[in-house]
Amino acid sequence: MTAPLARVPKDAHGWLRLVTGEIVEVTATSGGHRTSTTRHRHRAEAGVATTGGTGRATTTDAGADALRLAVTRAAAAVVPGRVRPPAPPETAESHDFADPRPFTPAEVADQVTALASLLAAATVPDLRWTVRAHTARETSRRTDTAGMAVVEETTRAWLHARLTTPAGAVTITGGFARHPADLDPAEIAAAALAALATGKPWSSPLQPDLVTWSPAATARLLTLLTPRLLSPTPTPGPAPTSGPGPGPKIAATLQELVLSGEQQKAAASVAPIEDAPGAGHSRPAPASAVTLVDDPWHRTGPLSSTFDTDGFRTARRLLIDRGRHQPPRGRTGPATNLMLARHGDQAPPGDCLRIDELHDAALGGADRDTIHAGFTGGRITGGRTHPVRGLLAITVTDLLAGVHGVAGPARFLLDLAGADAATLLTAPGARLRLRLG
């Protein structure tokens, strides 16, 4: 793999990464449709970093000519951005993010069958569901112009269910493990059915005091806001009128307010949530109970890796420490394994608006500080859950000011592999703008 790196310019740092492996995916639906695929993966990534920026190229051809061409393309594609890191010493490393037990496509299919059978036996009228399993065993070999050689062994397994009803109820749940045998179809089925809204669709006006964001919705929020958490402190000046970068207002909000003790100052009208008689839940913890970590070397993280997608060495980053935002230091690349940690458990809330799924979530507004999204969820009242769907909007300031803590088990979801999210508890009240329909 070292020969193609001869095409890296003398004043640049270059690397090659070759990934090989086997991926098994199985899908089953309530309509009787079932698919099973096994793919053998070969992918090569080349990167060139200079003092002016970084260029990358990928190819599915692992031949010597294709690798040389990938290095040439990466050198020609250098754009301003993350700059060349200090040259590391010559070394060889081996990292294990894998379970040594073998698994076969038949075992993966059996997991899907078991979960599908449990959902098919549910007594919910006209329930529709899709069950998906994804497993992978991969080997990554990386080398660079500084003489470093790294080998990583990785296994991943997901089991995932999405349930819908004609009334508009939607729930998504699943589990992640290093081996499919460590996933429990019964636990996933029970969690999915327990969260499914079974009452009549809600049509009355909504102005909830308490909002809970399911792990799927919380993960969307994390992936939407994390690039802002990694942004440097903004400099004074007008907000940009276009482009992907955060405006000064949202960046300042995240620097000064994110899950911190300032929420009462920024949102004085948000009253504390008191225990409701018979609600069956404890008072939510203050926002200082929340910690958010990007941990690329975590043993159980699905995207654990010693190098990120830009080719730079990864490191653990503390983004929010017990409610206080930590300005980025050192590595500034993309997040890998986002871990939403808790300090003490929270019981599930009682009466509330539950956001189960966010669609097309984006940041908008003049300062790109307002979250807009379509949503599906449920209005929980009197022990029953009524399906709700529509559009929502809330500023980042109001959302973060209302955070009280998290509840329930954390989950890595199949379509949001990089976020280990639990149920987020917020009290935005009237500050969450809703339009049902």
Structure description:
The protein has 437 residues and is α+β, with helices and mostly antiparallel strands. The chain folds into 2 domains: 3-195, PmbA/TldD fold, CATH 3.30.2290.10; 211-436, no CATH class. The protein is 17% helix and 40% strand. The chain has 7 helices and 19 strands. It has helices spanning 64-76, 105-120, 185-195, 215-229, 248-256, 263-266, 396-401; strands at 13-29, 34-50, 53-59, 79-80, 92-97, 128-144, 149-164, 170-177, 211-213, 290-294, 317-321, 324-325, 338-342, 352-364, 370-381, 384-395, 403-413, 416-426, 433-436. The strands form 2 sheets. Strands 9, 10, 11, 12, 13, 14, 15, 16, 17, 18 and 19 form an 11-stranded mixed beta sheet that branches. Strands 1, 2, 3, 4, 5, 6, 7 and 8 form an 8-stranded mixed beta sheet that branches. Helix 2 (105-120) packs parallel to helix 3 (185-195). The protein is globular and about 70 Å long. The N and C termini lie far apart (56 Å). Mean pLDDT is 81; it is low at 233-248 and 259-285.
